[in-house]
Design brief:
single chain, about 425 residues, mainly beta, 13-stranded antiparallel beta sheet, 4 helices, 25 strands
Length: about 425
């Protein structure tokens, strides 16, 4: 059994002091690229992503588990401006091991809801503070005044009517969690240049129906949805390039590389016995294999969020296998230490094991532009959580995603 114990090196002698972009990340879903930087610049990218696990029942009373992924992506074009915004939805029948994937290019609104629209497609937040609340609610076949109270915390709508797929989900959202300094994370804290990104997270409760092909209509009976809005901004490092050249010689001698990092990561999500939600990832440079960042963030059941120090987070990735161009470990173990604090998470050491059956995995293309896409490998996982003081692990489910931001040519139509 092959095991990789992932840990970062100490900060390199050639790296520079870190100063995040001066603007605080807002608590709504509007595009960071457009709101803070007045448009996408190559190779910046931003996405609004959901990982959803549901139990659903059909008209005959049969119950099955499904994994659903939705993503809206905005990417800077190589020459100037933006690639046309893209959306993808994927439904994996975990029992029959069948996957339905549909994608589209459309328009992305500039408001708080960041709504994606195309004929037959609506993906975006229902934000009670958005001036377009009524318009978006009507588009989702909801009565704005009637549902405003019930959706006071907001919701996310996923309505798709495409060939072979009818999907109507309403994800009732909880409070937004932001991590990092003013909402900014440096994905490469030991590299010569920072790689600034945002990470905002919400939990949600899914309801709705869906049908694939000529099959039955499935009604969601229970489940959990995890939302993240992330924005990776390589262009934000440009003001540092001049200063970086002063220390480039020592850095290149130390690291053996001079190219900006291209991140790849294994990402894990689950719920702890106390009801807190965990989002954790380990990131490395896909060009060199150099470790870049370890991260674990927790949101307790009352909505208080906090990030753990890197020194208190370790990852063990076991039984790796190659799927296309991606190395996917079958087992991922996240070890972390939660400090005491005002949160509602039991302090102490945790060992969280993600274990998946490769036969239930599926792959989702996140479209960028010019026929290119980043391919995400999605794995619905059984999870065992060994909490502080516990003699036996607690069993639940979670998600393990492996993704490399090196785009592949897919030939998918624009």
């Amino acid at each position: 059994m092959e095991t990789l114990n992932v840990h970062s090196n100490e900060r390199g002698t050639g790296s520079l002091p870190r100063f995040p972009p001066g603007r605080r990340v807002p608590d709504h879903d509007a595009s960071m690229i457009r709101t803070l930087f007045r448009g996408a610049r190559f190779p910046d990218s931003e996405w609004w992503w959901h990982s959803v696990f549901v139990e659903a029942v059909d008209d005959a009373g049969r119950t099955r588990p499904f994994s659903i992924v939705t993503n809206v992506q905005l990417t800077g074009a190589p020459l100037s401006g933006e690639c046309r915004p893209a959306a993808v939805v994927a439904i994996r029948d975990l029992e029959r091991r069948e996957t339905t994937v549909r994608f589209a290019r459309g328009t992305l609104e500039n408001g708080r809801a960041a709504g994606f629209f195309r004929r037959g497609w609506q993906l975006g937040r229902l934000d009670p503070e958005d001036p377009a609340w009524n318009e978006h609610a009507f588009a989702a076949d909801l009565e704005p005044d009637r549902v405003r109270g019930a959706l006071s915390g907001g919701a996310y709508v996923v309505h798709v009517n495409a060939e072979g797929l009818v999907l109507r989900l309403l994800l009732r959202q909880h409070v937004m969690a932001r991590f990092g300094r003013r909402g900014w994370l440096d994905y490469d804290p030991r590299g010569l240049l920072p790689l600034w990104a945002t990470s905002k997270m919400r939990l949600a409760e899914p309801t709705g129906t869906f049908r694939t092909g000529d099959g039955p209509t499935w009604t969601v009976t229970s489940g959990v949805a995890h939302f993240e809005q992330q924005c990776v901004l390589p262009s934000a490092m440009l003001p540092s390039v001049g200063a970086a050249s002063l220390s480039a010689g020592s850095y290149l001698a130390e690291s053996g590389r001079g190219l900006p990092a291209v991140p790849a990561w294994n990402w894990f999500r689950t719920t702890l016995p106390c009801g807190a939600s965990l989002s954790a990832f380990v990131m490395w440079d896909s060009l060199t294999g150099r470790p870049m960042r370890r991260f674990a963030g927790l949101v307790d059941r009352l909505g208080l969020s906090f990030e753990l120090p890197e020194s208190d987070v370790e990852f063990l990735l076991r039984e790796p296998r190659r799927v296309g161009e991606t190395i996917v470990p079958r087992v991922g173990i996240v070890e972390l230490v939660v400090p005491p604090g005002p949160h509602r998470v039991v302090p102490g050491p945790y060992a969280i094991r993600f274990d998946h059956d490769p036969e239930t995995d599926f792959r989702v293309p996140y479209l960028t532009g010019a026929g290119l896409a980043c391919i995400a490998h999605e794995a619905h996982s059984g999870v065992q959580v060994l909490s502080p003081g516990a003699s036996e692990p607690w069993n639940t489910v979670g998600t393990h995603e492996t993704i490399d931001l090196v785009a592949s040519f897919t030939g998918l139509p624009e």
